[in-house]
Amino acid sequence: IVLVTGAAGQIAYSLLYSIAKGDVFGKDQPLVLLLLDITPMLPVLEGVVMELQDCALPLLREVIPTDKVDVAFKDLDAAILVGSMPRREGMERKDLLKANVAIFKSQGEALDKYAKKTVKVLVVGNPANTNCLIAAKSAPSIPKENFSCLTRLDHNRACFQVALRCGISANSVKNMIIWGNHSSTQYPDIHHCKVNVQGKDVTAFDAVKDDAWLKGEFISTVQQRGAAVIKARKLSSAMSAAKAICDHMRDIWTGTTEGEFFSMGVYSTGNPYGVPEDLIYSFPVSIKDKTWKIVDGLAINDFSRAKMDATAAELVEERDTAVSFLGV
Fold first, then answer.
1. How far is CA 132 from CA 59, 78, 161, 225, 254, in A?
2. pTM score, whole prediction
3. Which of 151, 250, 283, 324 has the fewest Cβ atoms surrounding its Cβ within 10 A?
4. What is the DSSP string of 66-124?
């Protein structure tokens, strides 16, 4: 049983077909899809339901559109929280946080009350890291480890930039890391990246042979990519976000290959990299039996440390602002 919120929106429209045809939870896993959106979007949601029916997909047992949390969150195995309050023109970041705290507090409470305690929750709606933390704090009976936020899109963007630069396919770039917040302070780190060039694994520095680009333009391109897509399309990333959601959830369900890791925003308490406690922060993780583990023992140089600290500082500030709204 899988819930997608913001189900009438454009990310969900790109996402639902992939889930329903078995790309995420397995080719032999029957599914019930719950689609939650706000009441004014219900007519649009009916159209999405019709289209999913018309795909005639063998794994899709039932599609339930709803605007009610008690229906949407009942007995869930997975929740993909895409819906959030988007930033409007002239809106202060603080106002955006306040609106989203209310949404993710109520969704966290609904998870706590109705979902299975084993539910895996992926938060996509921005500001994703802090929204995820609020949802986790609002669902005390569900382990914090069950909550994660999406930084796989940033991860995929970074892999492609390196692949493009080297003239190779994106799957030849492994062990990229996104540290921190899913915002323009995120730190795409190539220091532990392996690039397969002509059948041989080499470092990103050896493959690209342009340290200035890797420490400069590469980082800013990945940090600003979301804004670049909005500028071009007049809409935010949807197709690529949906693909990243599928990658993220599939890795949770099926695990990662030995020696490989991916980026996801997870609970920072007890982490080995000196990141402040009680944040949802993007780390390199490996996954086994639906359980993530932060990859330990990676050397961090001064260049990386400064960037990891800067994005952590932004997250601490966001958290403190958001938590101050929780009691309101």
1. 29, 14, 28, 22, 22
2. 0.96
3. 324
4. ES-HHHHTTT-SEEEE---PPPPTT--HHHHHHHHHHHHHHHHHHHHHHS-TT-EEEE-
Q: Which residues are annotated as a binding site for substrate?
A: 87, 93, 126, 157
CA distance 245 to 79: 11
Q: Is 285 within 8 Å of 264 (Cβ atoms)?
A: yes
Q: Residues within the annotated binding site for NAD(+)?
A: 37, 100, 124-126
Q: Which of 5, 17, 111 is nearest to 67 (CA)?
A: 5
Cα separation, 144 vs 134, in Å, equals: 11
Report the distance separating Cα 35 and Cα 71, nearest Å.
10
For the chain, list residues with pLDDT below 50: none
Query: 96 near 127, Cβ under 8 Å?
Result: yes
Binding residues: 37, 87, 93, 100, 124-126, 157
Going by their DSSP bridges, the two strands 31-36 and 2-5 should be labelled as parallel
Of 302, 295, 264, which Cα lies nearest the Cα of 179?
264
Whole-angstrom distance, CA of residue 324 vs CA of residue 61: 42
Q: What pLDDT is stored for residue 25 in this prediction? A: 97
Catalytic residue positions, numbered = 182
- What is the per-residue DSSP string for 15-82? HHHHHHTTTTT-TT--EEEEEE--GGGHHHHHHHHHHHHHTT-TTEEEEEEES-HHHHTTT-SEEEE-
